[in-house]
Design goal:
BirA Bifunctional Protein, domain 2; three-stranded mixed sheet; eight-stranded mixed sheet; alpha/beta; 262 residues; 11 strands
């Protein structure tokens, strides 16, 4: 068991937020953990409007900003790496903790641990899934769901089900990921300026399950699956975290300097 102490993890379903607030909230908790003023957190959230997140190292000109604006699709750059994701009819998970919570504190071990929690969450829904052993598929596409990366979650037929990205900074980790329960994420192809076509390599939960998997069922399954490995308790954000979220949303994530840094 890699969790190395009994410090409680907060569980918060924060509902719908705009793109800048969602990314600012993730970073605010990360900074709080670095400073020792925040407790670990598993947050589940949604996006309003549907939003494309761009990986930290990804070029912004991969995205058709004009078409996205016309279709009321938000765009924001993530703090984590990877490629573009369209968050639409899905839940996003975000897990944050510090070095004192996890041993050994390595990217590989953290990825594997969280992947195990995700596989168990899907099993609650009756969905059998695997942890991808290696990165496969179209590695040249700007679309995250064009290929599963190592330690991401795929179906037994090797279709990507959950896309995840991670960053470790100053002894604290942020990993977040997209869990589509419907096929709307596939619409991202409309908003990529140029993309290499490739065979279908991803799927969504309702399709794999052969029945409707809505957000309520998925939320409950995530609470149970992660709760088998983490000391979860229902929690709240602190005033300090909310104030920093507002500051980062306004002064960083909504600014063109951040959006177009690549």
């Amino acid at each position: 068991m890699p969790i190395s102490n009994n410090r409680q993890f907060r569980f918060i379903y924060s509902g719908e937020r705009d793109s800048f607030t969602n990314m600012a909230m993730d970073e605010a908790i990360l900074i709080g953990l670095q400073k020792g003023v925040s407790l670990p957190l598993l947050r589940i959230y949604k996006w309003n409007p549907p939003t494309i997140t761009i990986g930290y190292f990804q070029k912004a000109d991969d995205i058709d900003f004009e078409r996205s604006k016309n279709d009321n699709i938000g765009i924001v750059r993530r703090l984590t790496g990877g490629r573009a994701v369209l968050h639409w009819k899905e839940l996003t998970y975000s897990i944050l903790f510090s070095q004192e919570d996890f041993t050994p504190f390595t990217k590989k071990d953290i990825f594997e641990f969280i992947a195990t929690c995700l596989v168990e969450s899907l099993s609650v829904l009756g969905i059998e899934s695997n942890i991808a052993e290696k990165t496969r598929g179209n590695l040249h596409s700007a679309d995250c769901f064009a290929s599963p990366a190592q330690f991401e979650i795929e179906s037994t037929s090797q279709e990507k089900l959950i896309g995840s990205a991670q960053v470790i900074k100053e002894g604290a980790v942020l990993q977040h990921g997209s869990i589509p329960y419907a096929g709307s994420y596939e619409n991202i192809s409309k908003y990529l300026k140029s993309d290499t076509k490739s065979p279908k390599s991803a799927s969504f939960l309702s399709q794999i399950a052969g029945k409707n998997i809505g957000e309520d069922k998925l939320l409950s399954a995530l609470r149970e699956g992660f709760g088998r490995h983490l000391p979860l308790r229902d929690g709240e954000f602190t005033k300090w975290e909310l104030n920093l979220t507002d500051e980062l949303a306004k002064n960083k994530y909504s600014q063109s300097e951040w959006m177009f840094k690549r």
